């Protein structure tokens, strides 16, 4: 199943610019406004690619977000990755 082409309706709904979403889709680090946003992006990117996360990324996330928010972020990433795995396995239509 081919992914839907990018559009701006969902990006506006979640509060991200189309330029930010385009950078993320292309695997580039987007130009983010706050340290919290940069920490969330770096942490989620590390969760998807690094084993374990680099200490600098982990420390940045703890400093910017706090341990509770980092735990919440980890849980959310695990949940959404599990959902993506299941949908992909079953070739389910999304949207």
How does this model look, in words?
This protein has 5 helices and no strands. With 95 residues, the chain is mainly α. The longest helix has 23 residues, at 67-89. Helices cover 66% and strands 0% of the residues. The protein is globular, with a radius of gyration of 15 Å.
The DSSP helix count reads: 5
Structural class: mainly alpha
- The run of helices and strands is HHHHH
N-to-C CA distance: 12 Å
The residue fraction in helices comes out at 55-70%
Seen as an oligomer or otherwise, the chain set is: single chain
* Radius of gyration, taken over Cα atoms and rounded to an integer in Å: 15 Å
Overall pLDDT confidence: 88
Number of strands: 0
Task: Give the topology, please.
Layout (H helix, E strand, L loop, with lengths): L8 H6 L3 H8 L9 H15 L5 H11 L1 H23 L6
Helix pairs in contact: 3-4, 3-5, 4-5
What are the main properties of this structure?
95 residues; mainly alpha; 5 helices; 0% strand; globular
Task: Please give a quick description of this structure.
The protein is mainly α and 95 residues long. Helix content is 66%, strand content 0%.
């Amino acid at each position: 199943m081919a992914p839907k082409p990018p559009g701006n309706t969902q990006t506006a709904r979640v509060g991200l610019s189309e330029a930010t979403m385009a950078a993320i889709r292309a695997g580039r680090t987007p130009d983010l406004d706050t340290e919290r946003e940069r920490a969330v992006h770096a942490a989620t990117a590390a969760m998807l690619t690094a084993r374990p996360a680099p200490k600098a990324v982990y420390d940045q996330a703890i400093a910017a977000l706090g341990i509770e928010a980092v735990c919440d972020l980890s849980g959310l990433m695990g949940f959404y990755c599990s959902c993506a795995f299941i949908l992909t396995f079953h070739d389910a239509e999304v949207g």
